[in-house]
Amino acid sequence: MHVWMNGRLLAREDAHVPVTDRGLLLGDGLFETMAVRNGEVCDLHGHLERLKSGLGVLRFGEAVDTDELGPAIKQYICSQKATCGVLRLTVTRGTGPRGLAPPAEVSPTLLMTLSPMPPRREAISLRIVTVTRRNEHSPLSRIKALPYLDNVLALLQARASGADEALLLNTRGAIACASAANIFVIRDGCLETPPIEDGALPGTTRARILSWAGEAGLAPREVSLSPQAVAGADHVFLTNSVSLVQEARDCEGRSLNRRAASAIDRLRSLLMSATQ
Amino acid sequence: MHVWMNGRLLAREDAHVPVTDRGLLLGDGLFETMAVRNGEVCDLHGHLERLKSGLGVLRFGEAVDTDELGPAIKQYICSQKATCGVLRLTVTRGTGPRGLAPPAEVSPTLLMTLSPMPPRREAISLRIVTVTRRNEHSPLSRIKALPYLDNVLALLQARASGADEALLLNTRGAIACASAANIFVIRDGCLETPPIEDGALPGTTRARILSWAGEAGLAPREVSLSPQAVAGADHVFLTNSVSLVQEARDCEGRSLNRRAASAIDRLRSLLMSATQ
Questions:
Q1: Which residue of B lies nearest to A29 if distances are taken between CA atoms?
Q2: N or C: which end of chain A has fewer CB within 10 A?
Q3: Which chain A residues are closer than 8 Å to B171 by Cβ?
Q4: Angle at the Cα of A20 (from A107 to B82), degrees rounded to 5?
């Protein structure tokens, strides 16, 4: 697989960024992780809209021609003859002088890579981590910014305790998200997920699941989630662009209920059948 | 100036990192910014100790031979015939597969650059920013991790409002730090700075200033700082490795007192005269 960088295809071993890139030095940039199925990006529009929103927050939207990104993504997939995989698009503020202040003229670094689609996992175990908290006071909790180190630490702690995934609390002690996924619970016919203000990333799959809840016989609700709400739910699952719907089997070492399997199957098949 | 990378000197235009570096993709790494004066790094020991502490938090300390870093830094400065400047050391977790989980074998990226020492600034104006909050619940607030995007946003907001520097509140509304500096106030013979638990980075200059307060006739206190405490202080200043002591002249558009100039001069000269 080649890497796409600023409009050029490069062999992976030739694909580098300068050591002055602000993405590397300061985490100053954004990314999107997109599933490719049947040669097409799933929900390309949703991903590009979130990227635009992030560029606005970071204030270098004028330096990135987002209208050109859609065609460039499609062309890249086509050039690699990719039918199924994971496409990551990374956008940094490019190079700059020493220090935090961005250069007056931003020349962004645009980067795309393709990776194999990971195998689907059985139901996973969750751990509510203590190593860090999700900062719902930061606008970075609402955009897909490069800094993912809190999430890396959360995942490391979960894995060290034998769990598959981490649940992060926000600074008020409500559950915000997993290390790389949104969380949903099904309870009494409702489909609940933490609101964006609680530090949940506005996941593209999260948005689609919320909009399709009715078709699975569920009433969608954005509501703060306590650890107790997770423990007592009828069903708990995580969502992201790659795994789509990932069921959880236990949390904090205690088995979770899995009483809404048919609703889960319905949501999964709605996601799988939707391409654009 | 050449760049030092994993033990090799490279021309700046040849110094690159692979697009799979986790520093670039996830902000997974650390850095130190050190002042070089008279051909020597100021407080090298303090910087290396903080780096070690950060490596422990990120759990890849075993992959970095920190004993070799001191000699490598000195050799790099010598090779560049640098007498005065800013040395940045960046350490990332190196390359890895897609996703958050680190590779089993970490091969870190080590990087050093030298930049000119910026000119000393007159007293600066401060703005308490609203765009984001410092997350004192994250261990990243206590190590010098690569993710500095919240700080970049803070600085952008301060600059957009005509101020020179941003003050960040933590999630409880106490002042934590500036975008790239610690904050101190002098009040009634006391030298006050926010404690680490409030989200203040354990700055190397901060530590030295606290230890030398007595020599400037001041009693050091680590105590939460409110915006009111800043507004009413006898003197307000910021510290970091490069600017050392940076006086503030106003905050939120209102003039600050500058009644402790002799103590400031004393602290500055103590810092300037200390090399190791």
A1: B149
A2: C
A3: 135, 137, 171
A4: 140
Written as tens digits, the pLDDT of chain B (276 aa) is: 899 999 999 999 999 999 999 999 999 999 999 999 999 999 999 999 999 999 999 999 999 999 999 999 999 999 999 999 999 999 999 999 999 999 999 999 999 999 999 999 999 999 999 999 999 999 999 999 999 999 999 999 999 999 999 999 999 999 999 999 999 999 999 999 999 999 999 999 999 999 999 999 999 999 999 999 999 999 999 999 999 999 999 999 999 999 999 999 999 999 988 864
Contacts of B17 in chain A (CB under 8 A): 16-17, 19, 24
Do B147 and A151 lie within an 8 Å CB cutoff? no
Report which secondary-structure segment, H or E, holds A51.
Answer: helix A44-58
Q: How far is B85 from chain A (nearest CA, A)?
A: 11
pTM (two decimals): 0.98
Picking from B134, B177, B128, the residue whose alpha carbon sits closest to that of residue B157 is B128
- CB distance A159–B101 less than 8 Å? yes
A237 CB-near residues (< 8 Å, 6+ apart): A183, A184, A186, A245, A246, A247, A248, A264
Cβ contacts of A128 on chain B, cutoff 8 Å: none
Round to whole Å and give the CA distance between A135 and A177: 11
| pLDDT tens profile A51-97 | 999 999 999 999 999 999 999 999 999 999 999 999 999 999 999 99
Nearest chain A residue to B13 by CA: give it: A18
ipTM of the complex: 0.97
Report d(CA B183, CA B256) in Å as an integer: 14
Q: For A28, which of B17, B132, B152 is closest by C-beta distance?
A: B152
Contacting residues of A for B181, CB less than 8 Å apart: none
Among A113, A131, A140, the residue with its CB nearest the CB of B149 is A140
